[in-house]
Design a protein that fits this description.
Layout: E1 6-8, E2 11-13, E3 30-31, E4 43-44, E5 55-60, E6 72-80, E7 87-90, E8 98-101, H1 104-109, H2 111-118, E9 125-129, E10 144-153, E11 171-173, E12 179-181, E13 193-198, E14 210-219, E15 225-228, H3 229-232, E16 236-239, H4 245-251, E17 258-264, H5 273-276, E18 287-297
Antiparallel strand pairs: 1-2, 3-4, 5-9, 6-7, 6-8, 6-10, 9-10, 11-12, 13-17, 14-15, 14-16, 14-18, 17-18
Length: about 325
């Protein structure tokens, strides 16, 4: 399954810490040339890096829409060792990046990063360092974390929903606007079903795109929810070629801004209980999803194996990710 830098409680929760000794602050951090689109930016700075207080610095001003409190962002990230400026990992080669909301939790836990983001625009590149990483790898240097704002992401789907296709369960909304799926009746369709409940007017999802979505997934056999981005507090971002076949085939061609119902037969989901084994955490059998397609963007191309950076470790994201 895909790995990303994780977000926890609305704030960035970096899973790498760095190494070094005392040194200069963030003033010395600069981009080493303008990064290619979809590629991790290279930076230079005086080493060893050692900040006495958390600092953020805009390395490149964005040219897109302004960011505001409450916005949900798609970010890419790169991490650099404070002792020698070498790379410790990045999300670009992993495809999707990560979703972050400019909310109170981030403002309280990382105010410097929050302030830099709310004053930035789409396309901005921001560097950040904190003394909290000092000494974590055996010396006193602090990390340099670099974040690129790919774009703002809408968080809601607008429009009146159509009834579910014949044979599929009814979909309603609770008071918080979260889709609720009635218990399925009868046998699941033998073939993949992918239909609009609300048709948006955004860009169409292409093969291999990164999709940002809210979703609810239930098992067809009993209608129980096995996964929901709403329960995790933020939309999920995933490269379409890294998810189950039912999502790959069912979402290609669908428009951003749409709510889609997917009935996924077992052969395009995770497999049968026997195939998965008793210790599997994946749901077995036929599945049904309601997916709000919030955005679709190009997925960065992974570098050749010999050029790839070490990947930051973190939790897997969306449930449709492949085993």
């Amino acid at each position: 399954m895909r790995k990303t830098l994780a977000t926890t409680g609305g704030a960035l929760s970096l899973m790498l810490v760095l190494a070094g000794c005392s040194g200069p602050g963030m003033d010395s951090v600069e981009l080493s040339g303008d990064p290619a689109e979809g590629a991790a930016p290279a930076v230079t700075f005086e080493t060893p890096m050692n900040v006495e207080e958390a600092e953020a610095k805009e390395l490149r001003e964005g040219e897109g829409a302004e960011l505001d409190e409450g916005d949900t962002l798609l970010l890419q990230a790169a991490l650099y060792k404070g002792s020698d400026a070498s790379s410790l990992g990045e999300t670009y080669s992993q495809g999707a990046g990560q979703v972050l909301r400019l909310e109170e939790g981030l403002k309280e836990s990382i105010p410097e990063m929050y302030d830099a983001l709310v004053e930035a625009k789409e396309g901005s590149i921001i560097a950040y360092s904190s003394p909290k990483t000092s000494g974590a790898a055996g010396d006193e240097s602090t990390s340099v974390e670099v974040y690129e704002v790919v774009r703002k992401i809408p968080t809601e789907i607008e429009g009146d929903a159509e009834d579910s296709p014949k044979g599929l369960p009814e979909v309603t909304e609770n008071d918080e606007g979260v889709p609720t799926v009635a218990e399925p009746k009868g046998d699941a369709p033998k073939k993949l079903v992918s239909e609009y409940l609300i048709e948006g007017d955004g860009e169409e999802v292409a093969e291999g795109d990164t999709v940002v979505a809210n979703y609810v997934g239930v098992t067809w056999s009993d209608g129980k929810t096995f996964d929901s981005s709403y329960e995790k507090g933020a939309p999920a971002a995933f490269a379409l070629d890294k998810v189950i076949e039912g999502w790959q085939k069912g979402l290609v061609g669908k428009k951003a801004g749409s709510r889609v119902i997917l009935s996924v037969p077992v052969g395009q989901a995770y497999g049968t209980a026997k195939e998965l084994g008793k210790d599997s955490t994946y749901p077995a059998g036929d599945l049904l999803f309601v997916v709000d397609v919030l955005a679709a963007v190009d997925t960065p191309e992974a570098p050749a194996a010999s050029e790839a950076s070490a990947s930051p470790s973190a939790s897997p994201s969306a449930s449709p990710s492949e085993k």
